[in-house]
């Protein structure tokens, strides 16, 4: 079995426009992998990341956290929040095929995706640190 390739990127963002720049760099990989696993503390910027990703995917709708509905769908994007979700992630798999899927709080579950972009966000004194691992 062929071992997946992994690439690690570290990016420091001082503001939201820096997050937009990061996504512009990652967009090709995100569109190839289709799965974005987001990890970070409350208020670290997971939903902000998805908001800017949606802009690059030409989604005009206002992106908000799906914390209480667990999933929101847009044209080309599925946004899932696992923070309070107790069910099985397989319930959402029908939505995965033709969409980019962004999963907040991905560290609360184990996944067996063969291709994905993992984004770990840390709050720093100067803004946010993004550790991005691309697996494909």
From TrEMBL:
Name where it mostly resides.
Answer: cytoplasm
Presence of the UniProt keyword Membrane in the record: no
Listed under GO cellular component are: cytoplasm
Question: Which SUPFAM superfamilies does the record associate with it?
Answer: P-loop containing nucleoside triphosphate hydrolases (SSF52540)
Q: Where in the cell is it found?
A: Cytoplasm
Fetch the InterPro entries from UniProt. Answer: P-loop_NTPase (IPR027417), T6A_TsaE (IPR003442)
One Pfam entry name: TsaE
Show the GO MF annotations.
Answer: ATP binding; metal ion binding
Matches recorded under PANTHER family? TRNA THREONYLCARBAMOYLADENOSINE BIOSYNTHESIS PROTEIN TSAE
Q: What is this protein called?
A: tRNA threonylcarbamoyladenosine biosynthesis protein TsaE
């Amino acid at each position: 079995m062929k071992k997946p390739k992994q690439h690690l990127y570290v990016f420091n963002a001082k503001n939201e426009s820096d997050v937009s720049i990061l996504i512009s760099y990652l967009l090709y990989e995100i569109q190839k992998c289709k799965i974005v696993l987001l990890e970070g503390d409350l208020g670290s910027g997971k939903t902000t990341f998805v908001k800017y990703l949606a802009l690059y995917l030409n989604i005009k709708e206002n992106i908000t956290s799906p914390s209480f509905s667990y999933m929101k769908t847009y044209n080309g994007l599925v946004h899932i929040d696992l923070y309070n979700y107790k069910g099985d992630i397989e319930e959402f798999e029908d939505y995965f095929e033709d969409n980019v899927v962004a999963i907040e709080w991905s560290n609360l579950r184990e996944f067996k995706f063969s291709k994905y972009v993992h984004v770990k966000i840390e709050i720093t004194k100067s803004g946010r640190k993004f550790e991005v691992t691309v697996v494909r």
